[in-house]
Design goal:
Shape: globular
Distance between the termini: 52 Å
Number of strands: 0
Radius of gyration: 15 Å
Oligomer: single chain
Largest sheet: none
Helix content: 55-70%
Length: about 110
């Protein structure tokens, strides 16, 4: 029987061996989220980063429990903005606004 790995497991292994690429990975996943609005994919990818950076450390630094971090980054959850913001800060990032071009947000 073959043991297949999920894409999340492959990404996690890659980021563990290439930690210098985490910043680019996060930039890309937020760009993709801005285009697709796929919250489940965003949370799944942030969960990968949290495992690479250490869920226990992120929980401690964010003031959330380990289970709270996992729940906030669940693709089935409905995380509170404050929790995601605290997790992002604990991972060493911040959420910042970026102005959209006029063609991106023009009324229909």
């Amino acid at each position: 029987m073959n043991n297949y790995r999920t894409i999340g497991e492959v990404e996690e292994d890659y980021l563990r061996t290439h930690p210098e690429e985490v910043d680019d990975y996060i930039a890309v996943l937020f760009d993709e989220y801005a285009e697709s609005g796929d919250t489940a994919s965003l949370m799944t990818s942030l969960r990968v980063v949290s495992r690479v950076k250490g869920v226990s450390r992120i929980a401690e630094d964010s003031g959330l429990s380990r289970k709270g971090v996992q729940k906030a980054l669940s693709e089935n959850g409905n995380p509170q903005f404050g929790n995601v913001n605290a997790i992002m800060h604990a991972m060493g990032y911040r959420l910042t606004p970026q102005k959209l071009s006029s063609s991106t947000h023009a009324p229909e």
